[in-house]
Design goal:
The two termini are about 25 Å apart. The chain is an alpha/beta fold. The relative contact order is 0.13. The chain contains 4 helices and 12 strands, in the order βαβββββββββααβαβ. Mean pLDDT is about 80; it is low at about 1-20. It has a 7-stranded mixed sheet with strand order 1-2-4-5-10-11-12.
């Protein structure tokens, strides 16, 4: 039997805590990057990190826009992905390497609070990893990038599957 240690790192943690998290033991960790809280909705995004025998894999799930209140003066905002995505600054062309790069981005569905940050972050120079999603969402993301005048990211279709659960031993 295999057990995984799961810890939650909430956005806004201190640099000291982030440094400690870089030296984690083997296990599975979830880092909340964005999402709903008492002050806002949207910006859904989290990273699943698996460490095993010195190797680390990270997958970000969703990358949505934050729905801001009208009083902020902004139409939307985005999760801070600077430690997960490499970036080329569009103004200076300086390359900034991500401290904890993700290997893939999985997009669950097409709501703005789950995909709305994609084109905006690409315009800011962030380099998206391969994107895994359904055929419908893949096509819509392609349209989003074409309308924004941006090259399409590497989008890979995930085939739908049916989950089968065996009958309960009590049945």
């Amino acid at each position: 039997m295999c057990f995984y240690k799961v810890s939650l790192n909430f956005r806004g943690t201190s640099m000291e805590k982030q440094k400690i998290s870089a030296e984690r033991e083997d296990g599975t960790y979830i880092t909340l990057v964005g999402g709903n809280n008492a002050r806002r909705i949207g910006g859904n995004s989290y990273v699943i990190e698996v460490r095993n025998e010195g190797k680390t894999s990270r997958v970000m799930v969703d990358l949505g826009a934050v729905i801001t209140g009208f009083e902020t003066g902004y139409e939307s905002a985005f999760p801070d992905v600077s430690r997960f995505f490499d970036r080329i600054d569009p103004e200076t062309e300086n390359f900034v390497e991500a401290a904890q790069p993700v290997d893939a981005l999985a997009v669950t569905h097409l709501h703005e609070d789950h995909v709305g940050a994609l084109t905006h972050l690409a315009k800011m120079g962030y380099m998206l990893p391969p994107v895994y999603t359904s055929k419908l969402t893949r096509n819509a993301v392609r349209i989003m990038f074409n309308k924004a005048g941006l090259p399409e990211p590497d989008i890979r279709e995930v085939k739908p599957c049916l989950l089968y659960t065996s009958p309960s031993p009590r049945d």
